[in-house]
Write a structure and sequence with these properties.
Helix content is 81%, strand content 0%. The protein is mainly alpha-helical and 114 residues long. Helix 1 runs antiparallel to helix 2, helix 2 runs antiparallel to helix 4 and helix 3 runs antiparallel to helix 4. The two termini are 21 Å apart.
């Protein structure tokens, strides 16, 4: 979705947010892939669908990003507190801090689009 925001977004803030999502989430996903491979976890592979373009894309994308990051933050914090695998707990705690920053940024960008 971040790549789509970079390419299809109208707002410079949305494009910048998308670029940061690509950078940060690629790094976090690569860490998770390595962790999962060492523990033989299977990871899902989902492909996003484009629904809108331009300013409509910007609004929908940022609404999705706020909602998704709120949900993800709660899940990562729960895993960091209650998980059973110490390596995964540590990764979840570290990644939750990144997600907090993304959520704050997403809310800020979203507020500029209204």
């Amino acid at each position: 979705m971040g790549k789509m925001a970079e390419q299809q977004g109208q707002s410079a803030d949305v494009k910048s947010f998308g670029k940061r999502m690509v950078t940060d989430h690629t790094r976090a996903n690569n860490e998770l892939i390595a962790l999962a491979a060492g523990k033989r976890f299977a990871l899902p592979n989902e492909k996003p669908k484009v629904k809108k373009f331009g300013a409509d894309f910007d609004k929908e994308y940022m609404a999705d990003m706020v909602k998704d990051h709120e949900k993800d933050l709660a899940e990562f914090q729960d895993e960091a507190r209650n998980g059973s695998d110490p390596d995964l707990k540590a990764w979840a705690a570290k990644t939750a801090e990144m997600i907090k920053k993304h959520l704050a940024l997403a809310k800020s960008v979203q507020s500029k689009l209204k």
